[in-house]
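Q: Please design a sequence for this.
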């Protein structure tokens, strides 16, 4: 289960403004950026921070990006990373003095999991830490960002403990919206940006200049809060999926089983009393059909549906393997012994042929495994020879919807497993299949059920593929 891919998809939606709806009443991001600019201008005047190198003051906005890599929603703005934070810097470039105790000194291996780990950190004297300028000291809600070698690792500072770090780790001193900034920096967009601007051979490095120039999408402050709440919900789900991946896959299988159970009991789509009832459909495709009141069926038969046996809809043919000497890999009729070439729905080619077919399944037929395993279904779109492990269900009329009956009969696997007998391996007889009691919906309802199953299974597949 690739929860990393799911997490990145969620972050992509967030930074593109597609995770929560915009509210035109929100104060636009331009007002937020103006507040940050004014605050930085005041701090520069007070000498607490330095002016950006590309301009003489924080008030110079000529270098602001007018456009970014994609179109932003109304109320959002692009800005450079440096213009959204107090400063973007890194650790001290001089070799630090070592000490047996004192202040932890972090290297990339201490932060490469995305969190700060002091367990194996070396130490520097308190005096070394005290001598560092404030611009190189991390505070809670600042962000560490690796810039050399394993660049692009984002580490939110969530501790008040004092520490310092090597120059291979960048420091982003935030003003506000640190949570939003963490989400952006963790996105595939920023990783791709770093891949593009990184230079060097032995160890690639993202320069501080390139990091300062990183275009950042900024939503209105209120929207940031809504996005943060939604992101936390989704990321909790993602983390849970990472722990319970196997359980989720089981739940997807159970969901499919439940959908099919609803389908065959008339609970997946509403009935339409104006449609031709199933008994008329059965008489049309099988003039010999006579309804019986002696058929046992679990569940209530919806209005317009009709009970019958599989033999009222299909010609049932049990497989019989041909003589082994007639099997080859070149020509003749394609031969199948069992489930080995089954896919989720359609039979694939076996690569084995026979010149002397014994029992055949016609195109547009259902195949049922009658032994090891029992009750698994597939569809064949071509004429094939079937061995003892298979049974063919060929529709008595072209009007029989093979796709609907594929789904309907897939719901009977557990039933057939319960009917199987044998010691070496379990098997079911042709009579069990022929006498299986089924509830037939009206023809048009069968079509609606198929469409609904396809939609629901598609959603489940997207979930499975994503995680």
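A: Design:
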């Amino acid at each position: 289960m690739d929860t990393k891919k799911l997490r990145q998809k969620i972050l992509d939606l967030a930074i593109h403004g597609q995770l929560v709806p915009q509210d035109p009443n929100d104060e636009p991001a331009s007002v937020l950026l103006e507040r940050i600019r004014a605050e930085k201008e005041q701090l520069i005047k007070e000498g607490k921070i330095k002016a950006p190198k590309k301009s003489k003051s924080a008030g110079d906005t000529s270098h602001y990006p007018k456009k970014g890599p994609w179109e932003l929603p109304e109320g959002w703005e692009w800005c450079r990373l440096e213009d959204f934070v107090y400063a973007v810097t890194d650790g001290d470039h001089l070799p630090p003095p070592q000490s047996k105790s004192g202040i932890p000194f972090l290297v990339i291996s201490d932060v490469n999991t995305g969190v700060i780990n002091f367990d194996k950190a070396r130490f520097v004297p308190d005096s070394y830490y005290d001598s560092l300028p404030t611009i190189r000291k991390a505070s809670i809600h600042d962000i560490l960002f690796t810039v050399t070698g394993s660049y692009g690792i984002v580490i939110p500072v969530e501790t008040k403990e004092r520490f310092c770090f090597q120059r291979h780790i960048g420091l982003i001193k935030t003003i506000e919206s640190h949570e939003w900034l963490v989400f952006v920096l963790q996105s595939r967009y920023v990783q791709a940006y770093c891949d593009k601007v990184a230079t060097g051979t032995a160890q690639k490095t993202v320069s501080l200049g390139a990091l300062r120039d990183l275009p950042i999408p900024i939503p209105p402050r209120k929207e940031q809060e809504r996005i943060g709440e939604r992101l936390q919900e989704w990321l909790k789900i993602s983390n849970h999926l990472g722990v319970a991946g196997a359980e989720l896959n089981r739940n997807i299988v159970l969901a499919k089983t439940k959908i099919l159970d609803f389908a065959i009991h008339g609970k997946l789509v509403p009935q339409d009393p104006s449609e031709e009832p199933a008994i008329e459909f059965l008489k049309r495709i099988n003039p010999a059909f006579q309804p019986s009141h002696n058929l046992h069926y679990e569940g209530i038969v919806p209005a317009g549906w009709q009970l019958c046996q599989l033999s009222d809809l299909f010609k049932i043919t049990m497989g019989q393997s041909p003589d082994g000497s007639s099997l080859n890999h070149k020509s003749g009729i394609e031969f199948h012994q069992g489930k080995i070439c089954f896919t989720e729905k359609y039979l694939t080619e076996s690569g084995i042929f026979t010149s002397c077919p014994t029992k055949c399944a016609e195109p547009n037929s259902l195949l049922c495994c009658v032994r090891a395993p029992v009750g698994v279904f597939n569809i064949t779109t071509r004429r094939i020879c079937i061995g003892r492990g298979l049974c063919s269900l060929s529709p008595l009329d072209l009007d029989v919807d093979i796709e609907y009956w594929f789904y309907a009969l897939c719901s009977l696997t557990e039933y057939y497993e319960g009917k199987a007998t044998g010691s070496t391996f379990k098997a079911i007889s042709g009579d069990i299949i022929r006498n299986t009691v089924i509830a037939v919906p009206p023809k048009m309802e069968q079509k609606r059920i198929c469409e609904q199953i396809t939609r629901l299974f598609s959603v489940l597949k997207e979930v499975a593929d994503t995680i």
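Q: Thanks. Anything notable?
A: The two ends are 5 Å apart (CA to CA). The chain has a mean pLDDT of 89.
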